């Protein structure tokens, strides 16, 4: 059996909506699970009627052309933003992580949208009202508030390496763990990490099957 649940669920109390309990208790793996870091992230997807960051009005306000802007880092409440550069598009993506993202856990999507428009407005010298008129649709992805994820993705702690080492080993050659949190390459916290972990577990199961024949 392969356990590929989000780390937030595995770390949660069994009384949580999506919490799980193992019978018998897997003491060593459970301690290893708690040794891994799992953080909060909120991602904001804003679809505008045009890439306003490329027009002459924005250039004038910025004092220079920012047409080729990719990532933008600021000190605003929603600090990190990026475009689809070098592809053209009207999608502007915001990101906030860590303790500041955790504070947004119980905020409504509308509250986070207001915070986002205020942040973008302060960066580009637009009012939130002006930006809302340009906005076609939006999506707020608040993984920490989702009862079936309870967080976003893993990060390393001082105990993570040892925790992963334990979880790499199957329990009684029967129970295998897989997920982006069990990845040791440069793409930690990504879909690529999750796929690599799944592939590694599948290969381990195949090797175990061949050795038992």
Question: Could you explain the architecture of this structure?
Answer:
The protein has 213 residues and is of the alpha+beta class. It folds into two domains: 2-38 and 153-212, FAD/NAD(P)-binding domain, CATH 3.50.50.60; 41-145, Polyamine Oxidase, Chain A, domain 2. Helices cover 37% and strands 17% of the residues. It has eight helices and nine strands. The chain has a five-stranded antiparallel beta sheet. Strand 5 (80-82) and strand 6 (91-97) form a beta hairpin. Helix 2 (27-34) packs antiparallel against helix 7 and helix 5 (109-124) crosses helix 6 (128-134). The radius of gyration is 21 Å and the shape is elongated. The mean pLDDT is 91.
Unreliable segments (pLDDT under 50, ≥5 consecutive)? Answer: none
Please tally the helical runs, counting DSSP H or I stretches of 4 or more residues.
8
User: What's the CATH topology name of the largest domain?
Assistant: Polyamine Oxidase, Chain A, domain 2
User: How many DSSP-defined strands?
Assistant: 9
Defining traits:
213 residues; alpha+beta; FAD/NAD(P)-binding domain; Polyamine Oxidase, Chain A, domain 2; 2 domains; five-stranded antiparallel beta sheet; two-stranded parallel sheet
């Amino acid at each position: 059996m392969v356990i590929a649940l989000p780390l937030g669920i595995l770390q949660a109390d069994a009384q949580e909506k999506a919490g799980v309990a193992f019978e018998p208790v897997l003491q060593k793996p459970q301690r290893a699970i708690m040794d891994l870091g799992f953080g909060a992230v909120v991602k904001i997807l804003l679809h505008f009627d045009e890439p306003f960051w490329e027009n002459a009005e924005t250039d004038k306000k910025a004092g220079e052309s920012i047409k080729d802007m990719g990532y933008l880092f600021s000190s605003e409440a929603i600090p990190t933003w990026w475009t689809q550069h070098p592809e053209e598009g009207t999608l502007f993506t915001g990101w906030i992580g860590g303790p500041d993202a955790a504070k947004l856990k119980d905020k409504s999507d509308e509250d986070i949208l207001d915070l986002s428009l205020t942040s973008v407005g302060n960066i580009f010298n637009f009012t939130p009202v002006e930006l809302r008129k340009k906005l076609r649709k939006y999506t707020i992805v608040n993984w920490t508030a989702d009862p079936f994820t309870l967080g976003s993705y893993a990060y390393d702690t001082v105990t993570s390496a040892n925790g992963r080492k334990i979880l790499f080993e199957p329990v009684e050659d029967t129970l295998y763990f897989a997920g982006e949190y069990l990845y040791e390459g440069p793409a930690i916290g990504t879909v690529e990490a999750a796929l690599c972990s799944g592939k590694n577990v599948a290969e381990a199961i195949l090797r175990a099957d061949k050795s038992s024949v």
